[in-house]
Amino acid sequence: MKAKKNSRAVYSTDRGRLCPQCLRNAAECVCGKDRPSSAGDGIVRITRETKGRGGKAVTVISGLPVSPEELKIIAKKLKQRCGVGGSTKEATIEIQGDQRTVCKDALEALGYTCKLAGG
């Protein structure tokens, strides 16, 4: 009885993140389906975090399917709308304070599908 050869790599440390379609390194992907800056499932998740911030709340927005330049522009609009400060880190936007509902309304007005995630 021959064992079937499974061509799908489950985990590998030598090549880094693999594209699920063409099974190549994400940087060498030829199908264009999986990019490190992709939005995942297309839903913007808005959470409230307090860890590592001295108990102060921060609204974290992740999953926006935009470039880093557009991310900064959206962050600026949200900060102005909320009247608070904030920053962009990697592919997330951090807004000072618990501004989840205001950010959700603003992002939905821009045409994004949003979810309030976490507690």
Automatic annotation (TrEMBL):
Query: Which keywords describe this protein according to UniProt?
Result: Initiation factor, Protein biosynthesis, Translation regulation
Alphabetical list of Pfam families matching this protein? SUI1 (PF01253)
Name the PROSITE patterns on file. SUI1
- Please list the residue ranges annotated as the SUI1 domain: 45-111
Provide the GO MF annotations for this entry: translation initiation factor activity
Q: Which domain of life is it from?
A: Bacteria
Q: Which InterPro entries match?
A: DENR/SUI1_TIF (IPR050318), SUI1 (IPR001950), SUI1_arc_bac (IPR005872), SUI1_dom_sf (IPR036877)
Report the family membership: Belongs to the SUI1 family.
**What protein name is recorded for this chain?**
Translation initiation factor
